[in-house]
Each structure stands twice: as structure tokens, then as C-alpha cells.
Amino acid sequence: MNPTIYSLTPRTLSLLASISERLGEVNAAHLHHPSPLLRRAHRVSTIHATLALEANPLGRAAIAELIDGHSLAAPGTAELEVLNTMRLHDLLPELDPYRSQDMRLAHGELMRGLALDPGHYRTGAMEVLYGDAGGTRPVRRRRAAAANIPSQVEHLLHFVENDDAPLLITSCVLHFGLAHLCPFTAGNGRIARLWQKLVLMQQWPVFSFLPVEGFIQQAGEGYYAALAFAEEHEDCGGFITFMMERIDEALHELLMRERQVLSATDRMATFLMDRHKGRFTRKDYRRAFPELAPATASRDLAQAVAAATIIRHGTGRNTWYRRPG
User: Fold this and answer.
1) What are the structural domains, with CATH classification, of the chain?
2) What's residue 261's pLDDT?
């Protein structure tokens, strides 16, 4: 089948509108640059969920310890899966999602010590299972051929990069396409989920930490059922809808639980993170936070100057600021 074939329903279009609106709210509330503590919590959730989908037995507490640097001298397979996934998450911002070489590099990091051929496409046919043998639904099986894997991956990446459809939709096509092609002997599900994340985070930074994988896991066997349904009907439209539902849920939870009144320190950190190096004024700062009163903006700036976070130059209307260094 051609994995790039899909149909859209009114439900899919409604989700597209909802997600687009939520992404606008995320940017307006400055949630695309979370605090280090929140980013760590989301990272634990993401790694736990994506590996739990692959039957990794480690709980969140154990994964949090590994993330905090409490690694073992001789980690077992479960711990090695976590450590490899952590390294790959750190590497993601440096990778180009449309380069197959970068995908192979990512797979090499992900499956180091876990597969015989990390970073190499498979050369033989393989049996693909959709579902968990211990679940309530029957496990679906199919045989994935090995013909022209490199060219099929290149075609899929080219399609996603150049298709005129919204990226939210084509990123789901990419996810399904990689799950369908199974270009590697192991780790295909993890690569498919990570590669969708990589495509989305390049346009919307919130996806670098948004724990969509946790909502996939919460959906249980629905994930594998959506993949199998798309295979059987040779149309991944239903899978697109499933994934967009999970993205919409993840954004909704972020907005409901994490939107808060930022402290002056958080506001300044967010402002400086969003700006290139160079001078700025109080007017620039207020433009980033239009809800602030002029007096509050002045206090934020004075506090940052006192803390040596920024340096003040000039007086009165000629006052401007810059980062140290």
C-alpha cells in the first residue's frame, strides 16, 4: 500500500481547528518555554509512555532517577532503553527530520546495545505485530517486505516536506508511514513517534516537551487498532484522527494545568529566551507581555538589573537594556 494515502473527515478538520487555536493560546501564555522543573516532569512522562508502549517495565520513579543522573554501572535492557532515549531526546534539536541520514543516526543512538544493526535499514522481510499479546484484543500480524526500503523512506520524507496539507496532518502521515514501512529490525515504533515529534517541534517548540506519548498510552489498545485499521483499509485517515485527538488532549491538559501567572523571574527568562542578542527597551518587554501594567514591567526590569540578569544603559526615555557579555 501507499502509506501517504488518506481521507479526511469533518472530525479531523474540527480537530485541526481546535489544535491550531490551542497552539495560539500556548504561545500567548508563553507556555512554549516551560520552567526546568516542568520540562523535567514532561520528559519523564514522555520517556515512560513511549517505552511502556514497547513493554518496558520501568516506572516513572525509576526513569526519573535515570534522568537525574543515577545511572547504573551495568544497566540492563530496560535501563539502557531509557538512557538511549534520553540521549536521543537531547540530540533531536540538531537533526533534520527530512534527511534519511539523520534518521539512521537517530536509530543508531536509540538502539545502541539493543539491536545487532543500529542505524542500518533492514535487508530481510519481517513479521509485524500490532497490539499486546497480553491485551484483550487479538494481536494483528502482517509481513513487511524488504524491497526498496531506502527509496521508500526517501519518498515518505519528501512527501511530508513538500505536501501542501497542514503539517499537523502530514506529521501523522509520517508517523503512520514509518510504522508501515518498519525500516529497521527493531525500534520502529519509537522512531515513528519521535520523528513526528521532531517535525512538529521545528514549527512549534511546545512539541519538544509536550507528552503526547502519554496520551497515546492512555488510549491503550486504540493506538494499535488505529494502525491496523489503516493497514487493512489502505487509508491512514483514521490514524490521523486518532493522533490529532491525542495532540488536542495533550495541549488541553497543558493549558488547563500549567497556565499560570508567571513570576517576574520567569517572565524575564522567557523574554530573553525568545529574543536574539542585542539591545531592547521597556517597550519591547511590554510588547511581549501586553497584559502587564507599565509599573510592573519597570519592576521586572529593575529586579533583573539588580540580579545581574540584564544590564541597564542610559536614563529616562533613552534607557535600554542588554544581556551581560
Assistant:
1) 10-258 (1.10.3290.10), 264-322 (1.10.10)
2) 63
